[in-house]
């Protein structure tokens, strides 16, 4: 059974990191006015979460498979889904599959689902009109599981069902025939239904749904970000830079991992902070030129020039927590660029590896810097005030790539 993180985890927003202090160069901070330094520091500390309030429990999503195709059964079992639904006249098929694989057979008969010991597991309900949807509420508590078949509309009824059964001990699963239908049911009202029953005869549906779960599960992994010291800042002339506008909002400390070399990606801050000259655009990252790599789901990279509406990227915060976001729009325009190079902060190290990024030379573009508990700090430094010796956050990874996939081979990037 696969685990799918809830939207409350996927859409986690990091706290606002305020810049407090007297002896610092220009940095971004929240636009709080008429408050003393002590008041600002108290606000900053109050907004920092403890390590305990980030984790939010979310029950696993159930996947049942309703099929008579052996290759579908094999694909499902290999991916950890071993609950299968059979019609009442297919007990012989269930016995055959049970002899070759560890499966849990369920049998549907007269609107109910039973296990092999004839214990009722679920009630089946068809929804084709609003009246039937209202009657579904009466099933709350009558069975451990309710399996629904949406005959007409899908999105609105699924959302209504999530709302009605929120907090209930009864689990609601929807019958789906395609990966997109399954995804719809699992994401309705962010929380999603308790699971899906795949009624399919094509093993490709199993493969695609597993890929979907893998992408969503990826957000529970915290990426390792390290401190890097800026070693060079240099005006670099004109170039075609890419603004990535996402279908989600970002908060201070969040951005995209971007770099000129795949071996190291720097965390580029979003434009979520307001200034005196321009309104905030919390959906945007001014990410760099068209040649640059950007991190995408699955541990892969792609070129910024390859992004387009509908593609996915990973949004990362200063603690390495990540979530998947959909690209809504990409803007490519010619702008002045600035070259930033950084090196790892490793004492007594002979490592001379450089990590590089080019960014638009503008006050709204910045790199996320590390947060240090107990010290005055900021969320990001604009490239216009970045200087040698500043600390930024870096994701170190393998440099050799083939179509965005990390491979093992000799490579020199410079």
TrEMBL record:
Residues 61-213 form the 3-dehydroquinate synthase N-terminal domain. Keywords: Amino-acid biosynthesis, Aromatic amino acid biosynthesis. It comes from the Eukaryota. PANTHER family: 3-DEHYDROQUINATE SYNTHASE (PTHR33563:SF1), PTHR33563. The keyword Amino-acid biosynthesis applies. The keyword Amino-acid biosynthesis applies. InterPro entries: DHQS, DHQS/DOIS_N, DHQS_C. The lineage of its organism: Eukaryota, Viridiplantae, Streptophyta, Embryophyta, Tracheophyta. GO terms for biological process: amino acid biosynthetic process; aromatic amino acid family biosynthetic process. This is 3-dehydroquinate synthase II. Pfam families: DHQS, DHQS_2nd. Signal peptide: none annotated. One of its GO terms (molecular function) is oxidoreductase activity. Residues 228-414 form the 3-dehydroquinate synthase C-terminal domain. It comes from Amborella trichopoda.
């Amino acid at each position: 059974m696969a685990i799918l993180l809830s939207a409350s985890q996927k859409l986690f927003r990091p706290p606002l990191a305020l810049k407090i202090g007297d002896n610092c160069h220009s940095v971004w901070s929240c636009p709080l006015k008429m408050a003393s330094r002590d008041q600002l520091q108290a606000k900053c500390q109050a907004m920092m979460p403890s390590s305990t309030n980030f984790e939010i429990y979310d029950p696993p999503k159930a996947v049942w498979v309703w099929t008579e195709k052996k290759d579908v059964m094999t694909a499902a079992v290999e991916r950890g889904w071993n609950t299968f639904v059979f019609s009442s006249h297919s007990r012989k098929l269930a016995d055959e599959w049970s002899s070759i694989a560890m499966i849990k057979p369920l049998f549907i008969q007269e609107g109910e689902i039973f296990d092999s010991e004839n214990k009722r597991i679920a009630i089946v309900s068809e929804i084709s009109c609003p009246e039937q949807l209202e009657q579904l509420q009466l099933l709350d508590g009558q069975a451990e599981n309710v399996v629904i078949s949406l005959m007409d509309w899908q999105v609105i009824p699924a959302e209504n069902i999530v709302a009605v059964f929120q907090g209930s001990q009864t689990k609601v699963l929807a019958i789906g025939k395609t990966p997109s239908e399954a995804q719809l049911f699992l994401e309705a009202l962010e929380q999603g239904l308790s699971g899906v029953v795949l009624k399919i005869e094509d093993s490709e549906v199993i493969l695609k749904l597993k890929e979907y779960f893998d992408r969503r599960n990826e957000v529970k992994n915290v990426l390792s970000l390290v401190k890097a010291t800026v070693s060079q800042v240099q005006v670099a002339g004109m170039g075609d830079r890419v603004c990535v506008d996402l279908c989600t909002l970002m908060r201070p400390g969040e951005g995209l991992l971007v770099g000129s070399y795949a071996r190291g990606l720097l965390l580029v801050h979003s434009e979520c902070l307001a200034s005196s000259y321009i309104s905030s655009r919390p959906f945007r990252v001014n990410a760099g030129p068209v040649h640059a790599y950007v991190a995408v789901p699955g541990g892969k990279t792609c070129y910024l020039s390859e992004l387009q509406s509908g593609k996915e990227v990973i949004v990362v915060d200063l603690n390495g927590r990540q979530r998947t976001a959909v690209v809504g729009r990409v803007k490519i325009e010619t702008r002045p660029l600035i070259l930033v190079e950084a090196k790892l902060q490793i004492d007594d190290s002979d490592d001379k590896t450089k990590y590089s990024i080019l960014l638009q030379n503008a006050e709204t573009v910045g790199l996320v810097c590390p947060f240090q508990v107990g010290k005055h700090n900021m969320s990001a430094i604009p490239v216009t005030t970045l200087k040698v010796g500043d600390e930024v956050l870096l994701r170190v990874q393998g440099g050799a790539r083939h179509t965005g996939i990390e491979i093992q081979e000799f490579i020199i990037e410079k």
